[in-house]
């Protein structure tokens, strides 16, 4: 598990979570509930890790919603900060762009 994912899970467990405006828009567009994403975070599967991202460390994870449907979520921690965990965006993976298991991009 990545250090960033561990930090984000710990922050979410303490309720230190913020949802970006873009994140709220994407969640609403795809019918994804914030609660589902936050509660499923401990079971998230790390797909991509960007510890040196210019705006702060961030990750792309695969999570499941309440109906066990796949959701990709991008979580981050603001640069120079230790809190909060920020849900940058979450969306349903596009089958044309992702493999059937939603773990790899199609080439």
- Assigned CATH class: Alpha Beta
Distance N terminus to C terminus?
A: 26 Å
Structural domain tally: 1
Gyration radius (Cα, Å) is 13 Å
Catalogue the unreliable spans: none
Total helices: the number is 3
CATH architecture label: 2-Layer Sandwich
Q: What's the overall geometry?
A: globular
Q: Would you report the number of β strands? A: 5
What's the mean pLDDT score? 95
Share in β-strands: 25-35%
Query: From the helix content, strand content and strand pairing, which structural class follows?
Result: alpha+beta
Instruction: Give the biggest sheet.
Output: 5 strands, mixed
Strand order of the largest sheet: 1-5-4-3-2
Work out the helicity level. 25-40%
| CATH topology grouping | YaeB-like fold
Task: Give helix and strand order, one letter per element, not per position.
Answer: HEHHEEEE
Explain this structure to me?
The protein has 107 residues and is of the alpha+beta class. It has a single domain (3-91), classed as 2-Layer Sandwich (YaeB-like fold), CATH 3.30.2310. 26% of the residues lie in helices and 28% in strands. It contains three helices and five strands. It has helices at residues 3-13, 21-30, 34-40; strands spanning 17-19, 45-50, 58-64, 70-76, 85-91. Strands 1-5-4-3-2 form a five-stranded mixed sheet. A hairpin with a 7-residue loop joins strand 2 (45-50) and strand 3. The longest helix has 11 residues, at 3-13.
